[in-house]
Each structure stands twice: as structure tokens, then as C-alpha cells.
């Protein structure tokens, strides 16, 4: 069922198999591949979902809808997700669960300092782990009653979503020449590479980020990333 139609259904009570029934989650994530993973985790858990791919879109959603759970990636194209976490944490109508998310585990302290109730380290694919993070962060009054079995099921996002991310990176580097977007490109690429378990891309993104931070030449890093991204796009076209 499409997400917008699902949101029109009346609230439902959680079940052992779907402990997040009745909960609406807003996912603030720019990667289509990571968003697809979270979409599957939410739907398998019974949660209704909405998605925003940047801070501006998330704020538009929040002016109209009040989700129970908000999961915010810290690296977004129009700013840090920590900004939105802090806004929502200080809001008088606070959401039940506010989670930060990043492929950089060192970002957990930043998310919690901004007011997050918990943190999701990307990549996340295990259904039981995902459910436990959300349920353990819920206030007692909002937490479903009863004991729920822990699922060991792992989800697999649609690889087409990964290709969308690669095309997005390619467009940024081609249309904007990458010069004003390199820091964002490095963190975005590192995130999707971890989710896809692509060690070669992880290394390339980390090297670019490190050289940028140290003020070292990075032209060869950009060329390397461009080649790797185009290679993965071409592989998918052949298949």
C-alpha cells in the first residue's frame, strides 16, 4: 500500500510480529538506498512512514504532520541534521522518539548533545536491532505493552535505489564540477558505500575527506571517485 494511503488508516495496536503498528515515522535522509533500507525496516515493523531528503523538506512535513518517531541523518545537503534534532528536542510538542543517524559512529555524541534519544549507526539491516533502538527510546507511556520476540531477519534494499544515489553523485560532480560540494560528496558517498558494503568506495571517500581536512591536494581523489562511480553505473546498465 502506498505510504500516503497507509497514513489515512485508523491507528492499530502493536502485535508481537509488528511491534511498531500505530506509529508514524519521518525519515530525514538524502540517500535513496539508505532510505529504502529504513522504509523496509519500518514497514516490516508495522510503522507508517514519510520521507524528507533535506532539512527544508523535513520542516515542511513537520508543519503539517506530527510523527511519533523522527530519524534524522546528520549529513544533509542543506545543513547538519543536528540542527533539526535540537529544534525538535526543544519543541513544546516534542515527538516521542528522536533519533540521530550517521555512518560515522563518532557522530553519536553530536546527536545526543543536540537532544537525540538514541542513535542509529549506518548501515542498519537487522529488523530486531532496528525495533529495539526505537522501542527502548520510547517513553514508558508510549511504549507498547508486552514482550516482543527479537527478529534476526535482515532486509535487502532494492539495488536500483543504490544506482539512483550513484547517478546523483555523478550529476553533482558533473553539473556543479564538485568544487563547492566536495565535503558533502565525500560524506554522502561514504554513507552509501557503508550501506552497500563497498570497501573500495569507502576508502576513496575517506581519503578525499581526509585530504580536504588537511588542506592537501585532492584532484586525484576526485578523479578516482568519478571513475569508481561511473564504473558502478556502467555495471548496472550492462546487467
TrEMBL record:
Matches recorded under CDD domains: REC
Modified residues (4-aspartylphosphate): 73
Keywords tagged on the record: Phosphoprotein
A GO biological process held by the record: phosphorelay signal transduction system
Domain Response regulatory: start-end pairs: 24-137
Name of the protein: KDP operon transcriptional regulatory protein KdpE
Lineage: Bacteria, Pseudomonadati, Pseudomonadota, Alphaproteobacteria, Rhodobacterales
Encoding gene (name): kdpE
Amino acid at each position: 500500500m502506498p505510504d500516503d494511503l497507509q497514513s489515512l488508516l485508523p491507528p492499530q495496536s502493536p502485535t508481537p510480529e509488528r511491534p511498531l503498528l500505530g506509529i508514524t515515522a519521518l525519515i530525514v535522509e538524502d540517500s535513496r538506498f539508505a532510505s529504502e533500507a529504513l522504509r523496509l525496516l519500518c514497514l516490516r515493523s508495522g510503522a507508517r512512514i514519510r520521507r524528507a531528503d533535506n532539512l527544508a523538506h523535513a520542516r515542511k512535513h513537520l508543519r503539517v504532520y506530527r510523527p511519533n518517531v523522527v530519524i534524522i541523518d546528520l549529513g544533509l545537503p542543506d545543513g547538519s541534521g543536528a540542527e533539526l534534532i535540537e529544534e525538535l528536542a526543544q519543541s513544546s510538542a516534542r515527538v516521542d522518539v528522536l533519533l540521530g543517524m550517521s555512518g560515522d559512529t563518532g557522530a553519536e555524541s553530536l546527536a545526543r548533545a543536540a537532544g537525540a534519544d538514541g542513535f542509529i549507526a549506518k548501515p542498519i539491516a537487522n529488523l530486531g536491532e532496528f525495533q529495539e533502538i526505537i522501542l527502548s527510546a520510547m517513553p514508558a507511556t508510549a511504549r507498547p505493552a508486552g514482550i516482543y520476540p527479537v527478529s534476526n531477519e535482515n532486509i535487502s534494499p532494492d539495488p536500483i535505489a543504490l544506482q539512483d544515489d550513484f547517478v546523483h553523485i555523478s550529476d553533482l560532480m558533473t553539473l556543479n564540477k564538485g568544487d563547492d560540494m566536495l565535503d558533502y560528496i565525500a560524506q554522502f558517498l561514504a554513507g552509501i558505500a557503508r550501506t552497500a558494503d563497498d570497501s573500495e568506495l569507502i576508502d576513496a571517500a575517506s581519503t578525499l575527506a581526509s585530504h580536504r581536512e588537511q588542506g592537501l591536494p585532492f584532484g586525484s581523489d576526485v578523479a578516482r571517485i568519478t571513475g569508481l562511480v561511473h564504473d558502478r553505473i556502467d555495471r548496472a546498465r550492462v546487467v
